[in-house]
Every structure is written in structure tokens, then in C-alpha cells.
Here is the input.
Amino acid sequence: MSTQSTRAPNDLEAYWMPFTANRAFKSGPRMVGSASGMHYFTPDGRKLIDAASGLWCANAGHGRESIVRAIQEQAADLDFAPPFQFGHPKAFQLASRLAALAPGDLDHVFFTNSGSEAVDTALKLAIGYHNVAGNGARQRLIGRVRGYHGVGFGGIAVGGMSPNRKFYGSSLPATDHLPATYNRAQQAFSRGEPEWGGHLADELENIVALHDASTIAAVIVEPMAGSTGVLPAPKGYLKRLREICDRHGLLLIFDEVITGFGRLGFAFAAERYDVVPDMICFAKGVTSGSVPMGGVLIRKHIHDAFMKGPEHAVEFFHGYTYSAHPLACAAALATLDLYESEQVFENARSLEETFADAVHSLKGLPNVVDIRNVGIAAAIDLAPIDGKPGKRGYAATEETFHRQDMLMRVAGDTLVLAPPLILDANHIGEMVDKTSRTIRALA
Ligand SMILES: Cc1ncc(COP(=O)(O)O)c(C=O)c1O
Here is the structure.
């Protein structure tokens, strides 16, 4: 029998694409070949405006020279360093920089390679923390309906998207979920944080009453749910969650994989909402997507609780071969420099109103049933085609890519705009114009 592959080198068949309609893609591929600043370029040279920051990653735009140089130099200097029992200077430098950027005493960092790993790390830390503090019965994890926390078993257990959960068995047994914060009847066409819905945080009291606080380790929420279509936190909601967690000794974890690094106009959404969680999960924007990296920012008392026992013993049995990979650390340090020198978060903040005005101008177009925005993120819900949910959305993915020269993220029938944070008012105009044309083309 031949050991040779039966596949030609450029055959599209072998690559099983993630979260992709594989058969549809392969019958009409959407390929990008290069990227620079606010744009992607197709292999045949078409220029596409990036309305998705790649996948909520490229907050500093693409192909930024200082980041590219840092990665190149690092690859030549130190390609890999074992992270278990050994270190390299940039890992420590980066942890200190991130701790300085985060609010309150979130001053320790555990590195991962992705948002999913960051979430699973935070959940393990939460349960482990209660264990080392002598509260081993606190194992239950509370997520939220319409939350997305990546694809690890921990993340899907606390996540609230049924397609991500229903195929994979019962997952973690001890979980529960807060209700979703979105209610179209109450919130349609809200600008920024909706007025209605802060009281939904009080549902946590009912969950505590049901399970008893002594069995609950942590609550994890996205300050703005991104993947299920830009659901900003209602006014007051996050503060109320913090208060209830404090009352019952529950840890509060913010999953800031999307909201971190400027998306809401601040380094972290925690700052915007003036709430210090016990942990922050981050990824994506930390390197502007240039090298995979994620991590968890951890408050001092949680870190310190683990630092017990004999000094030669491992304190937290967890880690990844590529935790604090030198290329990722170099990329992240260069990215943080760029965010600072170009005032990227401030740019996002100063353009929030212009962006909001532009996206809300789409109200009244055919099939538009809601528009939401916060920071530099917006969603336009289109009415689904009868009996075919997601079909109009898929048509939008094709229309924008092939005919409007725009790369846009679509979730179901919801169009999402989340461009790089180096944008200006002209880019906003162009993206909203192209979105408008797309909506009209699909009517
Ligand atoms: C809030 C949130 N958490 C976790 C993840 C998972 O990140 P990754 O795809 O890097 O594993 C995502 C990805 O979009 C996310 O939006």
C-alpha cells in the first residue's frame, strides 16, 4: 500500500476548518493572502477593509512594523524556552506590564496560548483557590446564557451557546447559568449600555439560594458578550454582580478575551465599568493577533493563597508547553508599546460616538430588527429567512467578501462590526456604507 497522500498539495479537502461551513467554503473559498493596517488583500490582489479585526484580534491593525520586527528578532535570539522550572526575561517583563495595566490588585499573570485555555485556567484557579483556602466544597461554576468562553470542556460548561454544548455530553456536572442580559422587547436599538436589565444580576441571589454559597466557586461573565452578537452589559449590572459575589464569597471572573486591550475604549472593560473582578481572562488583542497568546490576570489574595507548603514544591499543577512562548512575549511587549505610543485605546474611546451614530443610521433598512453598540463594536440583527436561520447571515458573509470588498464577521443572522482600533472616521463611513449596501442586496 502506498504511504503517499492521495491529495494534491493545494487541494482544499484536507483542512477541516474550525467553526466553518466547510462544504460551502470549499465550493466558494474566501481566501486572504496578506494584510496591512486596516486591510486584508486577497491572493489575487483585491483590497478588503477589515471590519472584524481578523477575529476580534488585530486591535493595532495588521502587519505593524514594530511588532513584526520584535517577532523576527526574538525568533533569531531565543526561539523557545521551557516554561516549567525555567524562565526567560521577557515573560517576567510582560507579566509586570500587564499587571500595571490592569486595575486594582490584579497583579499576577498566568500565561496560556488562547482564550479557551485562559478560561479553563481561571476556572481551575477558582476551584483550586477554594480548596487551598479549606473550602473544598466550593466547586460549582456559574456562567450565563448566551455567554461564550471558548471551546475547552470548562468553557463550554459555563458557556451559554447550545450548539457548542449539545454534542459533547454532560460536560462539567456542577454548573448553573444566569439568564441572558439581552431582551429585544426592552432594549431594541439601545445605544451603548441598555437602561433595562441591571436587575438581572439579582438572579445570582436565586442561584445562590438554590445551591447554597458553600458549593459555588465562581461566576464568569463577559463584560460585553461578543460572540453571540455584541450584548453590552446593562447599566449597573456588573456592579451588582460584584456586590452579590462579595456577599457570598464567590469569585468573579471577567472573560475579557474580546473586551481587553481597548475594544471598549479602555485597557480592560473592568476599568470602564469601575469593577475589579478577581480574575480577568485575556487573549487576542494582547499580541494584536500576531502570535497566539492568552492568559489570566489574578488578584493578589488568590495568588498568595497558593504560595504555601514546601518551597521546592509546585504550587499550581497546571501549565502549557507554550505558556509565555518567547515569540508571543516579544510580540505582546511590542504591541503594548504601540497601544501606548499611538494612544490606541484613546482613539477607540474618542470615536465611540461617531461609530454609534454611523451604525444606528442603518435603522430602517430592510430586515433590520435591532442594532446595538458599545465601544468599537456593533451588531445589526437581521430577521432570519423563514425556516432557514443563518441563511441570510451566510449570504452576508459572501456578499461582503466577494462583492463589497469587506471582511465582516457574521454570527447567525447578526452582522458584527469590530474593526481595528486604529480606525478613523473615514473607515467608519466606508464600513457602514458597505454594510448598508450588503443589507439592501440581501433584501
Ligand atoms: C469571550 C471569549 N472567551 C474565550 C474565547 C476563546 O478564545 P480562543 O478562540 O482564543 O480559544 C473567545 C473567542 O472568541 C471569546 O470571545
About this structure: The pocket of pyridoxal-5'-phosphate is lined by residues 56, 114-116, 119, 148-150, 222, 226-227, 255, 257-258, 283, 294 (CB under 6 Å). The chain has a mean pLDDT of 96.
